[in-house]
Specification:
Dipeptide-binding Protein, domain 3, alpha+beta, 5-stranded mixed beta sheet
Length: 247
């Protein structure tokens, strides 16, 4: 079998504005512009709730550095290491100030990705819950809906740029690191080019070098099952992670 790696999928810390209104936009600025202060007596004390997964070595290692950096500017961090069920519950409800999460890839189709922010299936939705004017959650979702009604490509491009700038100005997402997405292929295939996005498999350039010219392509799940129907369009429901060929 051969293997190939796709582009990195960035991992983020989410700051839940729902629990920290007014302070969200200032936090990354404080982290970058005030790494060391000679006196903290005059600063307003702040305590943040940092939620991470238990038994996750990578999260724990990065969390430790973040806690130390914030301590330099007088911000106390209380970390909660939760099991999978409790972590998901906190993510959906917004019961955190900071937590880790993963994007769908870069660059991902903005229509699919930002539409997912409407529901409670991702940390993005709960992190947006307490956004304050000039951009609250309802305003942002209205902008996302409006751009999808446009047909002029120049208008679409301008509106997406406006949305991206509006999100960045709120400073609720902090990029930290990336991970590689592996692809495993049978050696009788050639011409495969890894995708820049998770959950997509560009097989239009794939060529059969030897063996049968008839190939059945079926998407597999993280549990090892092959999908037999289209099913739900949300890949997170079943952990779509591979393409298998069956002769």
């Amino acid at each position: 079998m051969g293997s190939s790696f796709g582009a990195a999928s960035m991992l983020f810390v989410y700051v839940a504005s729902a629990l920290l209104p007014g302070a969200v936009a200032a936090l990354p600025i404080m982290m970058s512009s005030l790494p060391i202060m000679s006196s903290l007596e005059s600063c307003k004390k702040m305590t943040l709730d940092f939620v991470i997964r238990d038994n996750n070595v990578m999260m724990a290692a990065v969390e430790d550095d973040i806690v130390k950096d914030l301590a330099k500017i007088g911000i106390e961090v209380k970390t909660r290491a939760l099991d999978a069920e409790a972590y998901t519950a906190a993510e959906y409800s917004g019961d955190y100030h900071m937590m880790f999460g993963k994007t769908w890839g870069a660059p991902y189709d903005p229509h699919s990705y930002l539409n997912s922010w409407k529901g409670s299936a991702h940390a993005e939705s709960s992190a947006l819950g307490g956004l304050e004017p000039p951009l609250d959650k309802s305003d942002l979702l209205a902008m996302i809906n409006d751009v999808q009604l446009q047909t002029d490509t120049s208008v679409i491009s301008a509106k997406w740029e406006e949305i991206h700038q509006a999100i960045h100005s709120q400073a609720i997402f902090l990029p930290l690191w990336g991970t590689r997405v592996p692809y495993v292929l049978n050696r009788r295939f050639t011409g495969f080019t890894p995708s820049t996005m998770m959950y997509t498999y560009p097989i239009d350039t794939l060529r059969i070098m030897r063996g049968s010219k008839e190939v059945t392509v079926a998407a597999g799940t993280s549990g090892g099952d092959l999908l037999t129907t289209v099913g739900a369009m949300n890949p997170h429901l079943y952990g779509l992670n591979q393409v298998s060929d069956r002769l």
